[in-house]
Specification:
The chain is of the alpha/beta class. Helix content is 37%, strand content 16%. It has 2 domains: 8-34 and 79-481, TIM Barrel (Alpha-Beta Barrel); 38-76, no CATH class. Helix 2 packs parallel to helix 4 (125-140), helix 6 runs parallel beside helix 8 and helix 12 (364-378) runs parallel beside helix 13 (404-423). The model has no long low-confidence stretch (mean pLDDT 96). Bound molecules: 6-O-phosphono-beta-D-glucopyranose (BG6).
């Protein structure tokens, strides 16, 4: 019992949050390159010039004014421009991952490094060569790559000139991009994920309920195009290399009813269906779930679905079901209940749980619960591809970084995974999020650190970018060496 001998322990990152080198070796600009740094209290902005050429900024997730174009200005700091400089330090970083004993490393490819605008006939060789060097370095160290094809960084041209995912043409462009990757890295990469946290955009219903009407309409259409793109790419991968395994990736979380009031129970069920199973079912079962129609009707927003789309969805169901898990949330029909934060999973505050400095609940048992739910529903191999604690770390005078809070958090989640495996769940991998400190996606800061490896970089971009081992580094090494028995 316990973790199987071939369990894949490792860590996870994303291109724009760690690579830096945003305009190097022919990389095009990504939409996220125009995002400034924020903090827990100050939002991140997207900077732009409006149609009269006047500079402006919009809070992250807000629409830009009609006709505005993203632009970068000297007076702002854009944390993705230098990230943690993984682009130049990848050998050093991979050596540290190997020292911990990583079996797997999840990373993403920046589309704009391969196709700078997204529409070129030929890919950018320099971009392809960069990832080849990274994969070869991983291979040298016996670390299996797990590659996300799209992790929140669309080439700017596709966003602004083609209108982003609401435009059906992106399906073909994405398929073309993915086919290049499969051909190029056949033999080097076996595991692929099509879209990071594909269900994320659905959560705008919770962020800004009043505005969600018109926006959610376009989200349904965008998601539909992504489902079809993903399915076509699953098929392409199998065609190019039958040994490749392709997974979906969803933002996960357990959703509990706040009380045993039947209205709360129904609210929790509805939330889990709409936030999670809507995407999960479509990608794993190849068709929209039974509740989709009612969900669309609530927003008067049924997406356009062609007959060929339905065939593609059926033929391109995923081989693996992967998800992120940071915390759980509570649903209730009582709108006066105290609210909580979370990685999308905002809901009512759970009186039984502790909360992190950034207000996300800490709930290992929720992971066991979710793993059981997912395995019962899909009967597919599962991978936890993100889980972690963002916290403020202090470097002591002697250079040590003591992070017992992180160790406790992971320990709780390892116990939960072990229990789930003993429950009978087929769990194959755990890639801890932000195994090396990187730029936070939601706040754009460095202060919210997840890593086993400390990166000397501050919120304003200053610092040596040197790497240091935290206590959790040595501890995770023992976790892997003992196959989760610490
Ligand atoms: C997930 C994303 O939502 O959560 C990551 O896939 C992100 O890109 C992670 O970094 C943690 O969120 P944050 O905001 O703490 O960086």
């Amino acid at each position: 019992m316990g973790f199987p001998a071939d369990f894949l322990w490792g860590g996870a990152t994303a291109a724009n949050q760690c690579e830096g080198a945003w305009d190097v070796d022919g990389k095009g600009m990504s939409a996220s390159d125009a995002m400034t740094a924020g903090t827990l209290t100050d939002p991140r902005y997207t900077t732009y010039v409006d149609q009269d050429g006047k500079p402006g900024k919009a809070v992250m997730f807000e629409d830009l004014p009609e006709g505005a174009r993203r632009a970068v200005f000297e007076e702002y700091y854009y944390p993705y421009h230098d990230g943690i400089d993984f682009y130049h330090k990848y050998k050093e970083d991979i050596a540290l991952f190997a020292e911990m004993g990583f079996k797997i490393f999840r990373m993403s490819i920046s589309w704009a490094r391969i196709f700078p605008k997204g529409i070129e006939k030929e890919p950018n060789r320099a971009g392809l060569e960069f990832y080849r060097r990274v994969f070869e370095e991983l291979k040298k160290r016996d670390i299996e790559p797990l590659v996300t094809i799209f992790h929140y960084d669309l080439p700017l041209y596709l966003e602004e000139e083609l209108g982003g995912w609401v435009n059906r043409d992106l399906i073909d462009l994405y398929e073309k991009y993915a086919r290049v990757l499969f051909q190029e890295y056949k033999g080097l990469v076996k595991y692929w994920l099509t879209f990071n946290e594909i269900n994320g955009p659905l959560m705008i219903r919770h962020f800004a309920p009043k505005e969600s009407g018109p926006k959610i309409r376009s989200v349904f259409q965008q998601l539909h195009h992504q489902f079809v793109a993903s399915a076509r790419v699953v098929r392409a991968a199998h065609e190019i290399d039958p040994g490749m395994q392709v997974g979906c990736m969803l933002a996960g979380g357990a959703t509990y009813p706040l009380t045993c009031d039947p209205d709360d129970v129904l609210a929790a069920q509805k939330r889990q269906q709409e936030d999670f199973y809507y995407c999960g079912d479509t990608m794993a079962r190849g068709e929209y779930p039974h509740f989709a129609k009612r969900f669309w009707n609530a927003f008067d927003a049924e997406p356009d679905i062609t007959e060929q789309d339905r065939i593609d969805l059926k033929e391109g169901t995923v081989d693996l079901f992967t998800f992120s898990y940071y915390s759980s949330s509570c649903a209730t029909a009582n709108d006066k209940a105290e609210k909580a934060k979370g990685n999308f999973t905002m809901g009512a505050k759970n009186p039984y749980l502790e909360y992190s400095e950034w207000g996300w609940s800490i709930d290992g048992k929720g992971l066991r619960y979710l793993l059981n739910e997912l395995y019962a529903r899909y009967q597919l191999p599962l991978m936890v591809v993100e889980n972690g604690l963002g916290a403020v770390d202090v470097v002591e005078k002697d250079g040590a970084i003591h992070d017992p809070y992180r160790i406790a958090y992971i320990q709780e989640h390892i116990t939960a995974m072990k229990e789930a495996i003993e429950d009978g769940v087929d769990l194959r991998a755990y890639t801890y999020w932000g195994c090396i400190d990187l730029v936070s996606a939601s706040t754009g800061e460095m202060k919210k650190r997840y890593g086993f490896i400390y990166v000397d970089k501050n919120n304003d971009g200053s610092g040596s970018f040197n790497r240091y081992k935290k206590d959790s580094f040595y501890w995770y090494k023992k976790v892997i060496a003992s196959n989760g028995e610490v």
